[in-house]
Amino acid sequence: MITVEHLSKRYGDHPAVDDVSFTCTPGTVTGFLGPNGAGKSTTMRMICGLTPPTAGAATIDGQPYRRLGNPGRRIGVLLDASAQHAGRTGREVLTLAALTMGVDRRRVGESLDRVGLNGTAARRRVKAYSLGMRQRLGLACALLGDPGILILDEPANGLDPEGIYWMRGLLRDFADRGGTVLLSSHLLREVEAVADRLVVIGRGRIVAQGDKAELLAASGTVVRALDPAALEAALARAGLPGTPTTDGGVVVQTGAEAIGRVAAEAGLVLLELRPAGSGGLEQMFLTLTAGDSVQEAVR
Amino acid sequence: MTAVQTTPIAAPGAAPGAPVRRTGIPLARLTRIELRKLADTRSGLWLLIVIGLAAAGTTAIMLAASPDAEQTFAGLLSFGLLPASVLLPVLGILSMTSEWSQRTALTTFTLTPTRGRVVAAKLVAAVLIAVATTVAAAALCAVGNLIAIGTGGDGSWRLGPGLAGQLLVNQVVFVLMGSAFGALLMNSPLAIVLYFAIPTAWSVLGEMVRWLRTAAGWVDINLTSVPLSEPGMTGGQWARFAVAALVWVVLPLILGTVRVLRREVS
Questions:
Q1: Domain for residue A201, yes or no?
Q2: Known InterPro entries for this protein (chain A) (predicted)?
Q3: Chain A residues in contact with B29 (beta carbon < 8 A)
Q4: Domain carrying residue A249
Q5: Would residue A289 count as lying in a domain?
Q6: Residue of chain A with shortest Cα separation from B46
Q7: CB-CB: which of B7, B12, B14 is closest to A114?
């Protein structure tokens, strides 16, 4: 169980993470979505006690990360697959982790097998690893202590399609056995395939969160009226319940014509009536990404 | 690269619910890991090999070139430990800085959130490697001395009062100074350059500027550590060396530890 409460981080005037709250419960995969630079990694580092938050707190099974005596046995973390000593072999990286956690060193070999790194790869230095191999090594490291929780930052980066498919299976299986997974990505499609819940972040703030099915179903038609309350009442009378959006509009799971008729009968002034597009979530996500692409380019 | 999943994953979350041990990871275990990390990369391993080769080299030079009367155990040992006293601190520096330059701090501090304990383990490991190096050099010099006896050298085994301890202190203090510089500067090239440059620059200044000379007698670590390699160091000399060590080892170590504890890991 991961609990994040009102987590904020400011760098000078720049709010990298702004009042972020969510929970990840056992048996679920939570997809943490956002464009690059939205604050995903900073949030994850704060959860793991690597970055001190400006405000708010995060706990693992009710305890701050830094208070976990031997965290590797309870929570597997992969924040950056490239953050390994280039001169160590893959096996040595895992052996050091195993020694630290106090797990049997025989598990190093099992772990390497599990992520598909063979003996030859394990004897090579990390310097010679592709990004995909580093991700596999990082995943092996995260799984080594047999934890109940996984926190993975962009683990699919650098993996080939087969590897991505394999990882999805592994995470799904992990969650189905009662594990908790928090998985970040900047690609909606990538997370959509495995996540049960989604937390979408943009410019440091959470813009949407909830069950994946609910969020993805929020396509339909967007309608906005001068008098939102009257519109809501009219839609309810017509048996067309809608979900309000953040900017005062309503998303209704029906066509524009049906909504237009309801509005006309009720004599309402409409300000907006348009399809939410194939996947309102993707729309929202693209808007976020477009806004940040310039920032990202200059980083 | 094949994607396989041969071993089924044990049920995750089997452990949660059990009370968390607040004790954390024992220092002895962390020290063993830090010792291993000193030698499990090419740079670390080669540094150790070079220290060993250099010690053997100095012994060989002494046996071949120095006058027979100077071929004693004490002479061989003081000279044989010279390369180590220069190179071991680099190992201490790298132990601290590589966590940041190679970005392994991310893994290290994720697995061991009590950063102070990691720093302590690194210091203990550095001291242990300094002691081990001194013992190994002593063994090597003993062999050298036996050869000296065979080839007509003096071959005296007398070490003089306190010399063994002084040589050991010398190694330990300088390796800790390296660790302190590494912890404070967190950057391998910068720490190595400044480790050698600043005390030397200070020595040069102390020589040149008259009013600095008195201060240098207490604060210059190069100057105050010279008596350590000669038998029979006096109380006054110890005091001067202690003051210099306070400035060059303890102070940067405190500042460096605070920096490691506070720095954001990314």
A1: yes
A2: AAA+_ATPase, ABC_transporter-like_ATP-bd, ABC_transporter-like_CS, P-loop_NTPase
A3: 99-100, 102
A4: 220-276
A5: no
A6: A87
A7: B7
The DSSP bridge pattern shows strands A242-244 and A180-185 to be: unpaired
State the complex-level ipTM: 0.86
Question: What residues contact B188, with CB distance under 8 A and at least 6 apart?
Answer: B93, B94, B97, B98, B101, B182
Q: How many CB atoms lie within 10 A of CB B158?
A: 10
Instruction: Please give, rounded to a whole number of angstroms, the shortest distance from the CA of A199 to a CA of chain B.
Output: 22
Q: SS3 of A25, please? A: coil
User: How many structural domains is chain A composed of?
Assistant: 2
Residue A290 lies in a domain: no
DSSP state of A65: G
Q: Per-residue DSSP letters for A113-164?
A: HHTT--HHHHHSBGGG--HHHHHHHHHHHHHTT--SEEEEESTTTT--HHHH
Digit-coded pLDDT (tens) for A19-28: 999 999 999 9
CATH number of the CATH domain containing A230? 3.30.70
B258 touches A at CB < 8 Å: no
B20–chain A Cβ distance below 8 A for any pair: yes
Same domain, A267 and A135: no
Same domain, A53 and A186: yes
Asked if A170 is an interface residue toward chain B (Cβ–Cβ < 8 A), one would say yes
| pLDDT tens-digit map of B154-208 | 888 988 888 999 999 999 999 999 999 999 999 999 999 999 999 889 888 888 8
Q: Which residues are registered as beta bridge partners of A188?
A: none
**Chain B residues within 8 A of A113 when measuring between CB atoms:** 4, 6-7
